[in-house]
């Protein structure tokens, strides 16, 4: 335990359950520690104000809402323009800018303490005690193995709360182990990756009235700036088109591959992020080992707020083209629907059969048929048109019902008047009816087979049409992709061309000017000599 001044009231009561740790203490898994007075006086006295002014603050979005603090991202940009990328679940992340002067100075001190480089920083401004960061584990797909994650704190003291992950609870235990680490002005919280794996961390809101807070908590009017430095091993090329490094599929710059937006790979990465957040035994190789080339988690972005990394002009144009393709796909779909064969139901057969005679057995059969006929009737009130079905030769051989029914009614079935007067002593009409019933059943089976065949052919026809449409859309998409690349090249060419023509124009104007001066000069010489 340390003598760091910690909060009273609300925070003090919460601290009963969890130890308050500080410099010299083993935090988390023992690979995590706090360093005080990390920056020299002259830097730490001015850093807060300078950062407030020089950092390009943004509002970040997650799950459709604003994150409750201002954020900015800075990093080491390579000579060829490539830069580190830290991927984590967020709807929009601010663009990465090169390290600003004050951040560069802080970075030097951090690297000295850490003994390893850091090339990426997420800077966060907790404007009041109401700003916070909810419980999470940092996502390590892009964090260099074996490195540490560092939070430098400037301004008001806030408390870092650590909790073991739920899945590590022993059976029957419901309370997670917690630790609290107050982060005063000019301190540096160094978190090892083992702690990040087994514990989650957060900065809770602190809404107590200002006058009840301790002096370190009141410092800078309760505002806090934190700088989360990381050593990132994954990079994007200058045009954001390719990705390489630890968390990508291609591990070196030479193996850089095109970035992927949305789709199955993005979903897989999001699922791995979820696992890392909740599983104490998360294994990097299992979750991230295959590498991910995902840059954006959804296929298109309509947001203009972050023009550099996440919403370049090209991306916007690409998004517009995609929308056009989607509209075209919709139109093709509608046309297909119009052209599609409309299913027609065959006319019910059974109602055409005359009612049975008084013979008990025969009446039973007839009743059953009448019932099934009436139940069929409700759903088949559209008369069949044979031309509307896509019939094959096999169907033509099937028995045709309309031909069969009159045959049955006229020759085999007893007439209604006969059935009312005849009795069981007249077996001939009854057996004729049984014969007819089995003929009708055969006919029904034949017609069902015919319908099944038809359904199958329609399904095949439909899937073939879909496959054709898919091919058309794929070709269009490929062409648009090619156009996009061509436009990119054209843009670079135009820029070069403009630079060249500017040079030529300057040269021409200078020449004209020199010639004019020479001419005037000559004129005067000739005139006065
Ligand atoms: O503000 C802090 O110190 C914590 C920031 C943090 O946990 C993060 O950026 O992942
Ligand atoms: Fe974090």
Automatic annotation (TrEMBL):
The record's section on PROSITE patterns has: FE2OG_OXY
How this chain sits in the membrane, per its record, is:
Single-pass type IV membrane protein
Family annotation (SUPFAM superfamilies) = Clavaminate synthase-like
**Listed Pfam families:** 2OG-FeII_Oxy_2, Use1
Q: Where is this region: Disordered?
A: 1-23
In terms of superkingdom, the source organism counts as Eukaryota
Task: Say where the protein is mainly found.
Answer: endoplasmic reticulum
Q: Which GO terms describe its cellular component?
A: endoplasmic reticulum membrane
Q: List each copy of the Fe2OG dioxygenase domain by range.
A: 117-233
The record's annotation in InterPro entries points to: AlkB-like, AlkB-like_sf, ALKBH3, Oxoglu/Fe-dep_dioxygenase_dom, Vesicle_transport_protein_Use1
Coiled-coil residues: none
Gene3D superfamilies with a match to the protein in the record? Alpha-ketoglutarate-dependent dioxygenase AlkB-like (2.60.120.590)
| Record family assignment | Belongs to the USE1 family.
Q: What name does this protein carry?
A: Fe2OG dioxygenase domain-containing protein
Q: Which organism is it from?
A: Bondarzewia mesenterica
């Amino acid at each position: 335990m340390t003598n760091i001044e910690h909060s009273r009231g609300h925070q003090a009561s919460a601290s009963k359950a969890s130890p308050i740790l500080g410099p010299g203490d083993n935090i988390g898994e023992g690979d995590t520690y706090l360093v005080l007075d990390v920056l020299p006086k002259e830097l730490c006295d001015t850093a807060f104000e300078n950062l407030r002014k020089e950092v390009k603050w943004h509002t970040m979005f997650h799950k459709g809402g604003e994150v409750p603090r201002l954020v900015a991202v800075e990093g080491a940009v390579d000579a060829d323009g490539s830069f580190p990328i830290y991927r984590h679940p967020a709807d929009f992340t601010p663009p990465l800018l090169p390290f600003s002067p004050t951040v560069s100075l802080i970075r030097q001190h951090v690297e000295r303490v850490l003994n390893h480089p850091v090339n990426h920083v997420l800077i966060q401004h907790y404007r009041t005690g109401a700003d916070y960061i909810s419980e999470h584990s940092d996502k390590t797909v892009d964090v260099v193995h074996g490195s540490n994650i560092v939070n430098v704190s400037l301004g008001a003291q806030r408390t870092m709360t650590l909790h073991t992950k739920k899945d590590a609870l022993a059976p029957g235990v419901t309370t997670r182990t917690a630790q609290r680490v107050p982060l005063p002005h000019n301190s540096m919280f160094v978190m090892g990756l083992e702690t990040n794996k087994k514990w989650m961390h957060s900065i809770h809101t602190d809404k107590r009235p200002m006058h009840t807070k301790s002096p370190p908590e009141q410092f800078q009017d309760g505002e806090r700036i934190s700088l989360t430095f990381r050593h990132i091993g994954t990079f994007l090329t200058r045009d954001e088109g390719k990705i390489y490094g630890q968390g990508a599929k291609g591990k070196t710059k030479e193996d850089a591959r095109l970035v992927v937006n949305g789709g199955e790979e993005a979903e897989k990465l999001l699922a791995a992020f979820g696992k890392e957040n909740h599983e104490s035994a998360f294994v990097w190789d299992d979750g991230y080992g295959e590498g991910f080339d995902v840059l954006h988690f959804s296929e298109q972005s309509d947001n203009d707020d972050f023009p550099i990394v996440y919403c370049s002009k090209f991306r916007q144009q690409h998004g517009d083209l995609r929308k056009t393709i989607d509209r075209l796909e919709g139109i093709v779909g509608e046309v297909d629907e119009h052209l599609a064969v409309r299913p027609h139901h065959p006319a019910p057969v059974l109602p055409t059969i005359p009612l049975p005679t008084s013979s008990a057995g025969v009446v039973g059969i007839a009743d059953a048929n009448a019932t099934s006929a009436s139940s069929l009737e409700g759903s088949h009130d559209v008369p069949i048109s044979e031309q509307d079905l896509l019939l094959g030769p096999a169907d033509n051989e099937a028995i045709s019902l309309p031909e069969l029914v009159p045959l049955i009614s006229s020759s085999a079935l007893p007439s209604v008047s006969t059935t009312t007067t005849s009795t069981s002593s007249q077996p001939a009409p009854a057996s004729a009816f049984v014969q007819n019933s089995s003929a009708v059943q055969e006919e029904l089976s034949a017609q069902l087979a015919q319908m099944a065949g038809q359904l199958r052919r329609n399904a095949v026809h439909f899937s073939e049409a879909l496959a054709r449409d898919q091919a058309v859309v794929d070709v269009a998409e490929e062409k648009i992709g090619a156009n996009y690349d061509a436009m990119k090249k054209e843009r670079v060419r135009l820029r070069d061309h403009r630079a060249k023509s500017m040079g030529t124009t300057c040269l021409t104007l200078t020449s004209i000017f020199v010639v004019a001066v020479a001419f005037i000069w000559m004129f005067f010489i000739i005139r006065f000599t």
